[in-house]
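Reopening: Monooxygenase still failing for me.
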Amino acid sequence: MNKLLQVDFEYEGPFGEEMTAMLTGLAESINHEPGMIWKIWTESANDKLGGGIYLFEDEASAKTYLAMHAARLKEMGIEQVRGKVFDVNRSLSTINRAPLV
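Support: Ran it again with your exact input. Result attached.
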């Protein structure tokens, strides 16, 4: 069963196009993570937050990625990473055009 992973953390920037230029390589590498189906990058310059919403094939893949990603962010100086794994209600999500596979 697919699992949704929601991640956010305090982030000072850069945001927007500067963030894109800086993190394109990272974004490309995420496509090769086991079980990852897609990611939506999230950012808020006003609230100084970064993060993402991911869809994984299963809970094990989502939890493994979260542990690895939190460790990677810690190496980048980000101490606290909030991550939650959710079940996906396919029936209701389909009504609202969710990009599920």
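Residues 11 and 49 are 5 Å apart (CA to CA). If you still see a failure, please send the error message rather than a screenshot.
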